[in-house]
Structure formats: C-alpha cells, structure tokens
Amino acid sequence: MENGFRSGFVAVVGRPNVGKSTLLNTIIGQKVVIVSDKPQTTRNQIQCVLTRDSYQIVFIDTPGIHRAKNKLGEYMVKTAVNAFDEVDVVLLVLDIADGIKGGDKRIMEMLQGVKAPIIVALNKADRLTSEELTNEIDNFKTNFEFSNYLPVSALLGTNLDQLESRILEYIDEGPKYYPDDMITDQPERVIIAELIREKALGLLREEIPHGVGVEITSISERQDQQLMDIHATIYVEKKSHKGIVIGKGGRMLKEIGKRARKDIEGLLGVQVYLELWIKVTEDWRNSPRVLKDLGYQ
Questions:
Q1: Which fold has domain 188-293?
Q2: CA 148, 154, 155 angle in degrees (round to 5)?
Q3: How confident is the prediction for the chain on average, in pLDDT?
C-alpha cells in the first residue's frame, strides 16, 4: 500500500430519475452508467472507480428505490438497500429543482438505521434561480435532519469537486482496489448491453421501455481485421411491442443500432458490426430464467 493512500466505498442512492447516473459519469469523467429521462434506468449495482494520485473512491451506483411491481423491481430495490451495508459513505441524491417527494422521504426513513455517514447531494441546482435555490435549501434544512448537504449540478459539474472533498473526509487509509485505468468492474458485454438499452429507452414510446431487456449473445473479433462482431437480443414483453421496436421498414431498430454502435466503438476503440434481434418473451420481468440470462441475479 502506498504511504498515506486512502480508499473507500460510497453507495449512491436516490429515487429514480434524480440524476445519479449523470452525477457519476461526470465525476468519473467518462460514460460508465447509462442515462435516460425514463425512471428506473439503472437495474444493476454498478461499481464506478475514481482514482486520484493519493486516493481511490469506489462508487456503487444503485438502482433507483421505488415501489416494486414485479420480480425485476424487487431485485432492483433489494440491490439498492443491500448497498447500505459495509460502505464508508452513503451519498443520497435528491432533485432540488423538483422538490422533495414521497419517494425521497421513504428512502430517508430507510436510512435512519444506517451507520455510515450520509452526504446529501441536492442535484439539478442549475435549474433554479439563486433566490429559488436559497428558498429550497432553507426548506430542506427546516424539514430534514441532514447537516451534511451540498447543492450540485451533475450536468454542469457544479460543486462536484467540493462533493469529492466531503466524501474524502470519511475515507481512511486503505489499498488501491483497482488498477489506475479501470473505471468500472462491469464486464464489457454488460456495458455494451446497457448502451443498447439506453438507445432503446431514448427512442421508444413511454409504454415500452421498462419491458425492454438486452442480452449480448456473442462477441467475436474478425481475423486479420480491426472489427468486432456483436450479436444482441432485445427482449420485449408483447408481440405488439416487437413491431414498434422494429419500426416502419426497420427504421427504429436501425436507429437504435446506429446510435448504440457509435458508443460501443468509443468504448472498444475498434469498428463494430452490430446485429440486433428481437425476441418476444411475455412477462419476462417475472421470469427468473430470463432475469438470470440478462445478468439480474
């Protein structure tokens, strides 16, 4: 262990769509977690690694805590709650522009018995005027017993250096858990699947996104070529959804593939041939077998 080197784990929690993924991507300085304006985008617990000269912080990005409606939802909530154990810091992310909602209050109640220190990031502060922000912070201080809070903007990076400094106050000396160039513990095929799902989330209609899952069925490198062949299956729950995902003349599926391929090539550093297939599996979010195939253990 390097002399004086510090390391620790931070669980990032909050209700869906408060900006946890954007915050982490901005702190890490590279896209690690998919971002969408659809709730419940993050489904897995993803470790994002921030390494500086004298410390390493491992952020555990958890699914948004919500009222579960199926086995996938139950898995997501369980994953988030389990992240409270054995971490050095809990980072609670709230949407200060949207105000404190019932979902936020439920999470705060769940945090009552947590031993780790809690830092509250009041995100999306950039959406408020100075006067509005002051009023919202005063309201927060009056109604909630969290003394360690900070208004931030994950989108603009405002106050994220201060947030990092506050986290460091609770990080002790420890080993470097991951190599300097490692920014996530997720296998490439998991990140690739998530990038495809992100594009589907962004392009599809409101009633479909939560019923979309992506499985990478094969990844291979062509001999004597700087080209990766990737085959992926997009799961949908209804036959009617299959046609929507494909789109008229196959346009929607092509657009999903086009946008995903660009990000995947940035991730892998090589050209990619991406082939997407659609599979209808009714009620897959309640199927243990499919959930296991998609990596939701």
A1: GMP Synthetase; Chain A, domain 3 (3.30.300)
A2: 155
A3: 82
